[in-house]
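User: Is it possible to get a 3D structure for a protein together with its bound compound? The compound here is zinc ion. I've pasted both below.
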Amino acid sequence: MANQDPQPEIYTTRHEFDASAAIVPAGTTVTVSIYTNQANNEEVRLYAVAVRITDEDFATATTDTDFALTIQCGPNNVPSNQFDIAWLANTIANGGETLAFPSPILVLFQQPLSLIVESKSAIATVADKKRWVIVDLIGELAIQKVSCRGCGFVHPRNSRCPDCAGRPQ
Ligand SMILES: [Zn+2]
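Assistant: Yes, that's possible. Here is the predicted structure of the complex:
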């Protein structure tokens, strides 16, 4: 539920790739779901993504960072394609910016939101060796708005128009 409208939200997921006992083959995927807990008249808009890739001690990793991200929103991937995140993690580790989407990813009520991280290269086995891919999605939770059919006034969905008392829509 939004405490203000809109309200900033950051959703963080951690994807574990454990090479301590066995090789992590190329193509291994780790999926983590995000629960946005939005009400039925609220939508989430995601504007940017940040990525960190760390070792087992959560120190920035400089090797074995060949990962790609897919954002699954409802039944679709948005953006449509998986994208490389090694460069983004490296940029951010060196003081650079997050990756801003040209338009927000919209997450509607009860739409599942899942992040799938894929290791594009094999990670060789070394005792205790892990890679953590930590993804932050930066967005906002907002109450959905509609334009009144009668007078055009923009008001929250599922409520009467406060301007002309037109029917809810
Ligand atoms: Zn109206």
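The chain has a mean pLDDT of 95. The helical segments are 86-93.
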